[in-house]
Amino acid sequence: MNLPESELILRSNGALYHLNLLPGQVAETIITVGDPERVRAISRRFDKVELKVEAREFVTHTGELDGKRITVISTGIGTDNIDIVFNELDALFNIDLERRIIKDQLVSLDFIRLGTSGSFQADLPLDSFLLSEAALANDGLLPFYLSGGEPDEAAINLFEYLEDGRVQLPVPVLIVRPELPPAFASSNLTRGITMTASGFYAPQGRSLRLQSGLSPELLSRMRSWEYNGTRITNIEMETSGIYGLATELGHRAVSVSALLANRASGTFSSQPTKTVERLIDKGLELILQG
Ligand SMILES: O=P(O)(O)O[C@H]1O[C@H](CO)[C@@H](O)[C@H]1O
Ligand SMILES: O=c1cc[nH]c(=O)[nH]1
């Protein structure tokens, strides 16, 4: 069935509605970042840049590094934007935009998020990197997509652990894990489960003038949870959307974060720009390994 104009929305030049991108303009290896400025910091390192497109907070550069074609795109903040970026990037490859039908031959993409995050554990140092082996979806996007299936064993265990402590999350406990691109899967980066929040303040347990509904008892219980050698390591705002949608659409994905805040010790990096530059170095090094 043809996808109606109201569902698959195209601009008059045939480009996708929000991203303003056309088929052929995006590489099969895609780096996502929150901040549009980080797009420029990454494409500065390319040997050549073939495309620069800006639409709202979505800045896209495609280029080449050591013979590998790479796209870097800014998603802005939050999984609501991940919904837009992942559907539209997937459509560029897997929907025939002229005929408005899903293609028979689907392309599998590699997504690499290079982002920033707050550590949830006191022992994870500021300015270190964290690879998300899975994401705890505290944001609310994925229930609109996930087709059911077996819940992740870690989610069942976390739910029971919270219940035993007589605390509960304000959202269902949902954990998603992707297929990681191989070089990231075999890397020696520190790993853990990343909590994806629907906001920066109360949804991450921050209280300025308004009190967060995540109680100290709940946060402390979540901090002490361990399952099969893993634990909740950090908090950010995109990874669960990236992992859930990439998996449902048949793509590989990895989220690597620079830990700029430590929420357990109340500290923040004194060198965030330098740390993000180091994260970009590491991310590109692993991308070039394949
Ligand atoms: O630095 P980025 O990639 O934007 O990532 C983190 O920083 C933003 C909040 O400051 C959120 O997007 C969060 O996920
Ligand atoms: O604490 C932090 C730091 C960066 N990004 C977040 O979402 N949270």
TrEMBL record:
Pfam families: PNP_UDP_1. It catalyses: uridine + phosphate = alpha-D-ribose 1-phosphate + uracil. One of its GO terms (cellular component) is cytosol. One of its GO terms (biological process) is purine nucleoside catabolic process. SUPFAM superfamilies: Purine and uridine phosphorylases (SSF53167). It comes from the Bacteria. Its EC number is 2.4.2.3. Signal peptide: none annotated. It is an enzyme of class 2 (transferase). CDD domains: UP_TbUP-like. Residues 30-265 form the Nucleoside phosphorylase domain. One of its GO terms (molecular function) is purine-nucleoside phosphorylase activity. InterPro entries: Nucleoside_phosphorylase_d, Nucleoside_phosphorylase_sf. PANTHER family: FI09636P-RELATED, URIDINE PHOSPHORYLASE. This is Uridine phosphorylase. It comes from Neolewinella aurantiaca.
